[in-house]
Design goal:
Blueprint lengths: L1 H9 L2 H21 L4 H20 L3 H21 L1 H14 L10 H21 L3 E5 L6 H4 L3 E6 L2 H7 L10 E5 L2 E7 L15 H12 L3 E5 L6 E5 L2 E3 L4 H12 L19 H11 L26 E3 L2
Parallel strand pairs: 1-3
Antiparallel strand pairs: 1-5, 2-4, 3-4, 5-6, 6-7, 7-8
Helix pairs in contact: 3-4, 6-8, 6-10, 10-11
Length: 315
């Protein structure tokens, strides 16, 4: 008891705060690399540290010196190997300091973009024309946009359907939307780095996983083979969305009062705009778009990815 009391006397609020912050930092770092190839690299580094500790314990001087020398070179190698994770970490830190919440997008602008994208996705789904629509949020996508053809056009369902029509020069790339403008078409997206087997995904879905792994963008994917509409965010996919449910889900994530993640714990019921509510009512009356079941609830939410039959997690 005296020993325990002595230990408790040495625990100050500063020590507790230090331990708590350090634990959160470690948890945050592991959340960044979860589901990526970096997990195996971290395991490898951990094994090398254990080998070095054993070499020091058993006085294996030559092995310890070799590992010490390799550690200096390894520090620079880790920066290169973990470049995607470091970039993602800095991007998240930058989002924390963003002041975009002080000047939120106008309700009418969000409603217009959501309605036009949902209508375009529905039309493309019926015609089984593949599409890849990336909606920018806080993370800038200028570098991605510059890989395609700059348009700077108003968002409209007709234009989106035209861009993704077969035999047009830009239909194979992605459309990038910023605000209420289509800033580029035919853009090339980064490849996915998830450890989940990607053979079951098509090229467009892999590209959607790649961009959502590295940024906070939202991606709408229309499969060219099945006409299936999917929504991708944070490298998670919800499939089989009809027009009304896609619109409601997009509104939940883009609407200023309820902006957030469709899959995160902060997601709530949100407020649905009149145009989106009209789409939902139309779906209930017997015109649900593509007629396929959806994994998103009418308020724009989604079942937990591990439970929903149409939702898959790739991170």
């Amino acid at each position: 008891m005296p020993l325990i009391q002595s230990a408790l006397d040495k625990v100050s609020p500063n020590v507790l705060a230090d331990v708590a912050i350090t634990a959160l930092l470690i948890y945050w770092l592991f959340s960044l690399i979860r589901g990526t190839r970096a997990v195996r690299l971290v395991i490898g580094v951990g094994l090398l540290i254990l080998v070095y500790a054993a070499a020091v314990t058993f006085d294996l001087r030559l092995l310890a010196v070799i590992l010490q020398t390799g550690a200096y070179v390894g520090l620079f190698a880790l920066v290169v190997v973990f470049q995607p994770e470091l970039r993602r970490a800095l991007d998240r830190i930058g989002r924390l300091g963003s002041l975009s919440w002080l000047v939120p997008a106008e309700q009418a602008t969000v409603e217009h973009v959501v309605t036009e994208v949902a209508r375009a996705a529905q039309r493309l789904s019926v015609e089984q024309h593949g599409a890849l629509i990336v909606i920018e949020r806080e993370t800038g996508l200028q570098e991605i946009a510059e890989t395609g053809v700059m348009l700077h056009a108003d968002v409209s369902a007709d234009l989106l359907v035209t861009v993704f029509s077969p035999r047009t020069p830009l239909h194979d790339g992605a459309v990038v939307i910023r605000g209420d403008r289509i800033i580029a078409a035919g853009a090339i997206l980064p490849s996915a780095e998830t450890t989940v087997p990607l053979e079951r995904f098509g090229t467009r879905h892999k590209a959607a996983l790649g961009i959502t792994e590295q940024t906070d963008a939202i991606v709408v994917v229309v499969s060219e083979e099945t006409g299936q509409v999917s929504l991708v965010e944070r490298a998670r996919i919800v499939r089989d969305l009809d027009e009304a449910r896609l619109a409601a889900s997009l509104m939940t994530m883009l609407n200023p009062p309820t902006a957030g993640s469709l899959f995160g714990p902060e997601h709530g019921p949100g407020r649905v705009a009149p145009a989106v509510r009209h789409l939902a009512l139309r779906a209930r009356s017997g015109s649900p778009g593509n007629g396929q079941p959806s994994t998103a609830d009418p308020s724009g939410g989604a079942d937990d990815p591990s439970d929903a039959p149409g939702a898959e997690r790739a991170s």
